[in-house]
From TrEMBL:
<dbReference type="InterPro" id="IPR036013">
    <property type="entry name" value="Band_7/SPFH_dom_sf"/>
</dbReference>
<protein>
    <recommendedName>
        <fullName>Band 7 domain-containing protein</fullName>
    </recommendedName>
</protein>
<keyword id="KW-0812">Transmembrane</keyword>
<dbReference type="Pfam" id="PF01145">
    <property type="entry name" value="Band_7"/>
</dbReference>
<dbReference type="InterPro" id="IPR001107">
    <property type="entry name" value="Band_7"/>
</dbReference>
<feature type="transmembrane region" description="Helical">
    <location>
        <begin position="44"/>
        <end position="66"/>
    </location>
</feature>
<keyword id="KW-1133">Transmembrane helix</keyword>
<feature type="domain" description="Band 7">
    <location>
        <begin position="61"/>
        <end position="229"/>
    </location>
</feature>
<keyword id="KW-0472">Membrane</keyword>
<dbReference type="GO" id="GO:0016020">
    <property type="term" value="C:membrane"/>
</dbReference>
<feature type="transmembrane region" description="Helical">
    <location>
        <begin position="20"/>
        <end position="38"/>
    </location>
</feature>
Length: 292
């Protein structure tokens, strides 16, 4: 079974005639018919003039123009005959129906959708999609309104992506919407191409243009992120402070500046850690007496 038999509306080319020579020819025919009418040469002249006028008027109905990145689907009494993509002035038989469609690249930004992510958290998400019509016949005849169809499918694919991935803080190795934007965009583009293929459309690029927690939980999630940031910062500060204390003790011991027993070392470590890890500036206390 051929591909044409599987999908009879798959785009196929059709031959059309360059319109400029025919346009000039029809103008000449009309001019000749006017001359024959005016000259008054008898019944034969009038009959010839009438035929030329009829052919000129009917023939003029077969002209159409195509701009770059446009296509015209040709139909004969409702049956698809083919698609003309040749630019300029073209001509086909006047009784053929012509449907024009744009093949240009289109940029669509979806509405902000409120959905639940994989963890059940309500989030707001939107996408920017760059797409174009690839098969004019499928776009015109396989879907009712290909532009409206594309918008619905973009929203559907976006909801599906958001429901299968967490906004953030997923298990190790799992994708997240916020942390793996490139991978999520690639998946979105692949799913959109699968969904829009039935309408003869192709996605060139898909990107997440808006991603945020829903209003009702945004405050709580902000506090959670702040707490996580504070904890991460504290961990880094503690690691640095331990390294500094260790280095200080090693240098004091190596240079023989002072000899400390284990109790004094513990006290010194405690004091240094307090100073280094405190979120405020420490107030120094100067000891003017003896060490012990």
């Amino acid at each position: 079974m051929s591909q044409k038999e599987i999908n009879p509306t798959m785009e196929r080319p059709i031959l059309s005639v360059p319109g400029v020579p025919l346009f000039i020819g029809f103008l000449i025919a009309i001019a000749i018919s006017i001359y024959l009418f005016v000259s008054g040469g008898g019944a034969a002249y009038f009959a010839t003039a009438a035929v030329l006028v009829g052919l000129g008027v009917i023939g003029m109905g077969g002209f159409y123009s195509i701009q770059p990145n446009e296509a015209v689907a040709i139909l004969l009494f409702g049956a698809y005959q083919g698609t003309d993509r040749a630019t300029g002035l073209r001509w086909v038989w006047p009784w053929l129906t012509r449907k024009k469609i744009s093949m240009r690249v289109r940029n669509v930004t979806s509405d902000k959708l409120k959905v639940n992510d994989k963890d059940g958290n309500p989030i707001e998400i939107a996408a920017n999609v760059v797409w174009r019509v690839q098969d004019s016949a499928q776009a015109l005849f396989d879907v009712d309104d290909y532009e409206r169809f594309s918008r619905i499918e973009i929203d559907t694919a976006l909801r599906d992506i958001a429901a299968h991935y967490a906004y953030d803080h997923a298990a190790e190795g799992e994708l997240t919407l916020r942390g793996h934007a490139e991978e999520v965009a690639t998946l979105l583009g692949e799913r959109l191409n699968q969904r829009l293929a039935v309408g003869g459309m192709r996605v060139d690029e898909a990107r997440i243009s808006h991603l945020a927690y829903a209003t009702e939980i945004a405050g709580a999630m902000l506090k959670r992120q702040q707490a996580q940031a504070i904890l991460a910062a504290r961990q880094l500060i503690v690691m640095g402070a331990v390294g500094m204390v260790e280095s200080a003790l090693e240098q004091l011991s190596a240079r023989g500046v002072v000899t400390l027993d284990e109790e004094r070392k513990a006290q010194m470590v405690s004091n240094l850690l307090v100073v280094l890890c405190a979120d405020r500036e420490a107030q120094p206390v100067v000891n003017t007496g003896t060490l012990y």
